[in-house]
Design goal:
Elements: H1 3-10, H2 24-63, H3 70-85, H4 100-113, H5 115-120, H6 128-149, E1 150-154, E2 163-166, E3 187-190, E4 196-201
Antiparallel strand pairs: 1-4, 2-3
Helix pairs in contact: 4-6
Length: 222
């Protein structure tokens, strides 16, 4: 038997035994153990808090964006509100008309004033007196056709040459501005032409099977 084995057999320790005395040494030992455990728990809490702070700071830096000035932010909000509140422009609808009415008017002008014959004639070989005499006949026939089938009225009733004030929101189809146009309405200028508008149309009704493309039939004398 070795020396260590003989020493262990001499000082045998029974771990199942409980201390029967509680002196100052045991109090100090218990206090030391409790203090060490408290320090260990405190260190763990500090480590957890530090790690959580670092994570939150890293997220804040990653999500951080340049802050715009308050004035620019307000301007952008106002621009967005204007875009949202701005009325949508009305779609432009193109109306399609059949050419029958236009061909009918052309046929009436040809019937009463020989309008097409006059327009298609080469007048370079005629004198001004001859052209003037023919133009008088065409004028009378055209005037008769217009008065018979249309009612016309001037758009403006003022005398030509008088000063006119064009208000805001004027009808651009009824009033055409010419000259030096600067700024926005209202405008003030001289009336050059009164304009014309059709108030009534009285075209004759066409029979079924009528060919409107024939504005003047060919004439054959027998």
């Amino acid at each position: 038997m070795t020396y260590l084995e003989s020493l262990m057999s001499t000082f045998t320790v029974d771990l199942t035994l409980r201390p029967t005395t509680f002196d100052l040494w045991h109090v100090c030992l218990a206090g030391t153990v409790v203090s060490l455990m408290g320090i260990l728990i405190l260190l763990l809490l500090v480590m957890l808090l530090t790690r959580s702070r670092y994570k939150n700071k890293a997220k804040a830096i990653a999500n951080q964006q340049p802050v715009e000035p308050v004035v620019k932010v307000i301007e952008k909000i106002v621009e967005v509100e204007k875009i949202v509140q701005a009325p949508m422009p009305e779609p432009v609808i193109l109306k399609e008309y059949t050419p029958d009415a236009a061909l009918q008017v052309l046929g009436l002008l040809q019937k009463e004033a020989r309008f097409i014959d006059f327009i298609k004639e080469n007048i370079s070989a005629y004198s001004d007196a001859d052209i003037g005499a023919a133009a008088r006949v065409v004028h009378e026939g055209c005037n008769k056709t217009i008065n018979e089938h249309f009612s016309l009225a001037p758009i403006r009733n003022e005398q030509e040459g008088s000063n006119i004030t064009v208000p805001v929101g004027f009808d651009a189809a009824a009033i055409r501005l010419t000259g030096n146009i600067v700024g926005t309405a209202p405008f003030t200028g001289a009336l050059v032409h009164k304009g014309w508008q059709v108030t009534d149309v009285r075209l004759p009704k066409l029979t079924q099977g009528h060919n409107p493309n024939i504005v003047a039939a060919a004439e054959i004398e027998l």
